[in-house]
Amino acid sequence: MLKPILTGEYSHFLPVILCLAFVGFTILFDSDLTLQIAGCMVITIIWYTVRFGYENDIKYALKHGDYDTAQRLCESAMKRFPTDSFLLIHTALVYGAKGQFENSILLSSTAIEKGVRLPLAYLVRSSAHLSTHNLDQAESDCNAALSMLSSDTESACYFLKAEISARKGRFEEAIENLTAASKVHHHSPFVYSRRAEIFCRLADFDSAQHDLNLLNHCKTPYYVATKHCIQARLDLLQNKNESALENTTLAIALIEKPAVLASHGLALIRNGRLTEALAYLDKAISINRFDEEAYWFRGELHEKLGDIEKAKLDRAEAEKLGYLPYL
Asked: Of 36-40, 52-56, 168-172, 203-207, which gets the smallest average pLDDT?
């Protein structure tokens, strides 16, 4: 009987219930009003200290790219506050960051179905739909988030619109949206890194290099690795294969996310190290089965090995996921 109150959908009422119980207890024993008020304040403060302690720790972990810690904190907090909208959305965000897109969609949808009108809920779900190549749903959710006119998420909305535009092959529109994002959130490494990559697609190497140079102030492993990977793509497009491999080697030493693994695999292919490349591309796909680039690059590898059937299968999978080749 108490389980729904202690751990279930009514758990957010527990501080109120405890306060009422305390007041009843003090009245029963003729305690004065001051003691009643003080006791209620102590109960409430302890409860919300735990709740907001989780929130601050989760935000800190996300800020520093520590998704394993963020996931552990989110899952622990969800056991205590299972209907908390912040925790639902941020747990969905963490799942998305770790490639668990179905879980991300499930939790963000749960938050939205509960009537949560927060742009972040729609942005998280939009990002997960984008990662699973459900572009129309991703665009719908992104537009819903943008219509809520939140200054906290405006830059992220433009960034996500740019991602959707790029996936649909509308690269100039993507550049416009990324530029709009940069005006809202100055010095955003996400914006500069993505815009640099799209400039690579458009063969605008000077603009790509300019945006990469804007990332020089970023020192966290994620952004440093991202910069090396995009620099490697720029190198490959200019036939500087050895330099590309040097950059991806530096990136892979910092972080082993699927995008980094795929980039390193491609650099190895272009330097003739096919067996090593296969291991990295297989690992990228094992972590994220929606990584269209990894499939495309592995298709190139199979072709070089003379396995035309496997090459066709991997490239077909990449195209099904929406990959638009340029490397």
From this structure: 36-40
pLDDT of residue 28: 52
Name the residue type at position 316: A
Identify the CA nearest to 89 among candidates 69, 70, 65: 70
Report yes or no: 46 and 40 within 8 Å, Cβ to Cβ. Answer: no
Q: Which residues neighbour 24 within 8 Å (Cβ) at sequence distance 6 or greater?
A: none
Class of residue 7 by CB neighbours under 10 A (exposed 0-12, middle 13-18, buried 19+): middle
| Total length of the chain | 327
- For residues 73 and 55, the answer to whether their CB atoms sit within 8 Å is no
Position 181: which residue type? A
Domains of the chain listed by start with CATH number? 66-150 (1.25.40.10)
Per-chain mean pLDDT for the chain? 85
How many beta carbons lie within 10 A of that of residue 63, not counting itself? 10
| HEC letters along 213-250 | HCCCCCCCHHHHHHHHHHHHHHHHHCCCHHHHHHHHHH
The whole model's pTM is what? 0.73
Query: Do residues 210 and 233 lie in contact, with contact meaning Cβ atoms separated by under 8 Å?
Result: no
The residue whose two tokens read 């535009």 is 165
Q: Which pair of tokens denotes residue 292?
A: 């269209």
